[in-house]
UniProtKB/TrEMBL annotation:
GO terms for molecular function: FAD diphosphatase activity. Residues 16-185 form the MoaB/Mog domain. This is MoaB/Mog domain-containing protein. One of its GO terms (biological process) is flavin-containing compound metabolic process.
C-alpha cells in the first residue's frame, strides 16, 4: 500500500496567497497561480491556510494584507505590478507596512541592461516603464533577483510578504528558483515530521460514506488536529475519492485508517497523480 502514499517535509509555517486583479474577478483570465502555490506549499511542508482573490483596489489590498499578517508567516501576492494605472500592488503593499515607494536603482539598472528602454520608448512610456521599478523601500525591504535574465525581483517585506508577478510563467519560475533561499529564511530542514496522504477510490456515494467519514474524522482528531479526512465527488464517473492526510509521526495510525477505510468502503488505493488527473479533467 505504501506505494500510494505521498509525503513531504512538514513545518510550522502558515502561508497565504493573495491573487490581485480585476481581470480574475471579471472572468477575463483564469487564475492558475494559486493552484501552483498550493502545490508548492505542500511540497515544501508549508501549511497553506488561505487563498484570497481581490481586485486592483488599494483599500482591499491593505486590509487583506494587514489581516493576513496577524496569523501567517509566509504570504505571497500575485499580480498588479505592471506599468499601467491599475497596477497598484507595490504602492498598496508598501502602505500596508507604513512604507514609501521609490525607483529602486538596482532594478532600474537590471531593466536597462536587459531591456534597453531608453532606446525604444518615448518620455511618457519610459516613465510608465519605470513604474515597474518603483518598489517599497526601507530597512524592512529586501529584493531578491532570481536570475540574470530577469529584471523583476521578488520584493520581500519583513521576510513575511513576497510580491510576485501575476504572469504564470514568471510566478512559477521565480518561486521554484527562490526555493533554496526560502528554505534558509524559514529554516526548513529535512529532520521534521512529514505530510502523508492516502487516496482511496470507492463506488459508494458520498451520502453512503458520510457517516463513516464523520466518525473517522472525530476519531482522528483525538489523535491530532493535523489529520484531515476528505471526500471528493467525481460527477458522472461512478466513484468518489476519500483522502486521509496527516504526518509521519502518526504513520502507523494513518496506515490503519487507510486499511480500515479500504475495507469499510469496499475501496481501492489510487495514486495522487491519478487523483489529480481525475479531479482536474473537467473543463467548463
Amino acid at each position: 500500500m505504501l506505494k500510494f502514499r505521498s509525503s513531504v517535509v512538514m513545518s510550522k509555517i502558515n502561508a497565504a496567497c493573495v491573487i490581485i486583479g480585476d481581470e480574475v474577478l471579471n472572468g477575463k483570465i483564469v487564475d492558475t497561480n494559486s493552484k501552483f502555490f498550493a502545490k508548492y506549499c505542500y511540497n515544501q511542508g508549508i501549511k497553506l491556510n488561505e487563498i484570497v482573490t481581490i481586485g486592483d483596489d488599494e483599500y482591499q489590498i491593505v486590509e487583506t494584507l494587514q489581516r493576513l499578517c496577524k496569523k501567517h508567516q509566509f504570504i505571497v501576492t500575485s499580480g498588479g505590478i505592471g506599468p499601467t494605472h491599475d497596477d497598484i500592488t507595490y504602492e498598496s503593499v508598501a502602505r500596508s507596512f507604513n512604507l514609501g515607494t521609490k525607483v529602486d536603482e538596482e532594478c532600474k539598472r537590471q531593466m536597462q541592461r536587459l531591456s534597453k528602454p531608453e532606446t525604444r520608448l518615448d518620455t511618457v512610456a519610459l516613465k510608465d516603464f519605470y513604474r515597474m521599478a518603483t518598489l517599497p523601500y526601507g530597512p524592512r525591504v529586501e529584493n531578491y533577483y532570481i536570475s540574470d535574465d530577469l529584471w523583476v525581483p521578488i520584493c520581500s517585506i519583513d521576510h513575511k510578504v513576497y510580491i510576485l508577478p501575476g504572469i504564470p510563467q514568471l510566478f512559477t519560475r521565480m518561486l521554484k528558483e527562490f526555493t533554496p533561499t526560502l528554505r534558509k529564511i524559514y529554516g526548513l530542514t529535512a529532520d521534521k515530521n512529514q505530510y502523508v496522504r492516502f487516496f482511496i477510490r470507492t463506488r459508494l456515494t458520498e451520502s453512503q460514506i458520510s457517516a463513516y467519514l464523520r466518525k473517522l474524522q472525530a476519531e482522528a482528531s483525538e489523535i491530532s488536529t493535523e489529520i484531515k479526512i476528505g471526500s471528493y465527488p467525481h460527477f458522472g464517473l461512478g466513484f468518489n475519492t476519500v483522502s486521509i492526510l496527516g504526518t509521519t509521526n502518526h504513520q502507523a495510525f494513518l496506515e490503519s485508517l487507510n486499511a480500515r477505510t479500504i475495507k469499510e468502503l469496499d475501496g481501492e488505493p489510487i495514486s495522487a497523480e491519478d487523483e489529480e488527473s481525475i479531479s482536474n479533467g473537467f473543463e467548463a
